[in-house]
Amino acid sequence: MFQQHIVIDGLQYSHWDRDYFLMLKASGIDAVHATLVYHEDARATLTRFAEWDYRFERNSDLIMPVYQVEDIKKAKELGKVGILFGAQNCSPIDDEIGLISVMRQQGLLIMQLTYNNQSLLATGCYEQKDTGITRFGQQAIREMNRVGMIIDMSHSAEISTLEAIDISERPICISHANPTFAHDALRNKSDTVIKALAAKGGLLGFSLYPFHLPNGSDCTLEDFCQMIAKTADMVGVEHLGIGSDLCLNQPQSVLEWMRNGRWSKQMDYGEGSANNSGWPDPLPWFSGEDGMQNIYQGLLKTGFSDKEAGQIIGGNWYDFLEKSLTPMLSLQ
Fold it and tell me: What are phi and psi of 237, to 5 degrees?
């Protein structure tokens, strides 16, 4: 039954080469939300688009771009993996609100308002003071709503996240984070945030990044599925998905770019421990081609129905994207 479902991973930043695309295809994943940029400005973001255009040319038998939700079904029918682009920071728009529309037309479908630090739009989850959504941020949210660019608050602080949920006229996502009841990491989300997200029709993608899981790299499939089950009891199955945050085969330099960008001379340890200075050991039950199928089977064993398990491994992401990517002007 796994193969009959649409399977979507709501966030990855692995080493994108042909071997990895072959693995994705073998895994049964139909679409991946790929991080296009972390701290790149508008000009550098265009280069990232160009790099992906070249990947699509060289691997057209395996991958295809996703510009609208129907492209995901097309990818499944063709036996390819659809790639939809997101930014883990608001840096691609510099300080210019008009670039939101420009980047959306290029294919940037999802954008985080912050990445750990204070941004021009909101406060990141590692800041000591959370001042909420800025004046620019309020207008950026409205413009993202208008053009059909999805707001992602995965790396944002609590007040900022709650304000974004309230300000946005359209549901937002937290593409890759876990509940704090499972593991109290700075980037994980409180019950208050998760309930507010669900109340406005939003979506939470559960992360498989070990530093944000119960028992870290020793987190079992059962532990992971129990976390999902407890969240489903709290807000309902229809608001839950997977956003693995998988970063396979990436060098230390990529980790340092993710955490430090250009703003720090010292290594940012994220959760505050030097033990987190390198890549964590990947979860053995997820890092191979059977990862999503293992989650599907684990959900069934945890008590979810086939329909519910299918929603979590991709159906809910598909429905969320279908509602969120259409520009509001075309709906009037």
Answer: -65, -30
Of 330, 324, 31, 329, the closest CA to residue 149 belongs to 324
- Given the candidates 3.30.2310.20, 3.20.20.140, 3.40.50.300, 1.20.120.450, the CATH classification of the domain at 2-331 is 3.20.20.140
Contact 121, 133 (CB under 8 A): yes
Residue ranges of domains in the chain: 2-331
225 Cβ neighbours under 8 A, 6+ residues apart: 295, 298, 299, 301, 302
Q: Are 62 and 32 in contact (CB under 8 A)?
A: no
In three-state secondary structure terms, 126 is: coil
pTM: 0.95
Identify the three-state secondary structure at position 137.
helix
Distance in Å from the first CA to the final CA of the chain:
39
d(CA 96, CA 283): 40
* Cα dihedral value 151, 169, 322, 28, nearest 10: 30
Task: Return per-residue pLDDT of the chain as tens, 332 residues.
Answer: 899 999 999 999 999 999 999 999 999 999 999 999 999 999 999 999 999 999 999 999 999 999 999 999 999 999 999 999 999 999 999 999 999 999 999 999 999 999 999 999 999 999 999 999 999 999 999 999 999 999 999 999 999 999 999 999 999 999 999 999 999 999 999 999 999 999 999 999 999 999 999 999 999 999 999 999 999 999 999 999 999 999 888 888 888 887 888 888 887 766 555 556 678 888 999 988 999 999 999 999 999 999 999 999 999 999 999 999 999 865 44
State the Cα–Cα distance between residues 104 and 60, nearest whole angstrom: 23
